[in-house]
Amino acid sequence: MADQLRRWKLTKGQVKHGSGLNNARRDTERWLAPIKPHLQHLAAASSAGTSLEANLKHITVTLAIWDAVWEVYLDPKWARQRLRLYGAQDRALEQFFNKVRLEEEVAELSMKRHGHAKQLVVFFGAATIGIG
């Protein structure tokens, strides 16, 4: 029985790679590098406090960096990236299950020709099967 089971594994890392999320993260880091000091300065001047001074500091910093930050954020490459990533995870999953479906079709053909075939078993999460 064990020799007739084939194991397919789709990890979170494979989905991220297949959908382009890893490349998008690297692109985002590269695109934000020129304004990183501005963003850090803004984070340091958080308006989370309830004091008037904290709010005024946050407003002052926001106004000081506004043009530089939005010049980067309004670049069309951000919209192109969002469009590429829209549905990318679904496409990565679809590609994986197309491979599994193709394997299942080959197994059905093997069953017709030879009278035996590997079985398809799908597990989600950390599920496993004990064979022994």
UniProtKB/TrEMBL annotation:
This is Uncharacterized protein. The lineage of its organism: Eukaryota, Viridiplantae, Chlorophyta, core chlorophytes, Chlorophyceae. It comes from Haematococcus lacustris. It comes from the Eukaryota.
